[in-house]
Amino acid sequence: MDIALLLIAAFFAGTLNAVAGGGSFLTLPALIAVGVPSVTANATGTVALLPGYVASIFGSREDMEPAPGLSMRLVIVLSLVGGVLGAALLLVTSNAAFNRLIPWLLLAATAMFAFGPQLRRWADSHRAAGAQPSRAKAVAGLLLVSGYGGYFNGGMGILMLALFGLLGQTRLNAMNAIKNLVSTLLTAIAVAIYAAGGIVQWKEAFIMMVAATLGGYLGARGARKLPAPVLRWGIVVIGLVMTVLFFLKQ
Hints:
By secondary structure, the protein is mainly α. It is 80% helix and 0% strand. It has eleven helices and no strands.
């Protein structure tokens, strides 16, 4: 039953990530439900979703260009540094402390997902008003978002799209492509640190990795037939239900 739960959660998490994001709303609770400690569950779920991030780079490589104020070299360095800092912070977070943080992190990620379009419109309005951030602000922004992604994966894609909009990037395909690169780099380096710190349960990670990859490839076709608002609010409902359940457990 535990393996079945992990397979189902990972399959649909892969599908959600391929279409709209939100896969960690399923992987983290599923791992905790089968008895994996919360910090280890967060790390293990991130490992399981890494292949999907890697595949996304190849699917969007032609559109890849850095946001204004950032070079490709800076994007790579900041993604890796942020991933290291976030993962290192997770390593020194106790399970008890992370258990207290989980519902707040899920709530924040759900809110970011729910209000993602408004965040992007807000970024567009600031860009249209002529607000051009300095190189220092661009660096600080990407470092903070990458650090968040290295610590807790949920909602980081929405944060990145909003950040790149604020920096003046206008082409959505380019924004998605650079988001895919940053997500892959920070997740890869975070996974390496999780592994070195011994907080990955590899059996569960490999089980979920296969299911998430299949879900991303096969399930996305069916999910794309759903109206976008239905899919988005379905994910928001999942996030809210998981948030409430984790608040009730405290």
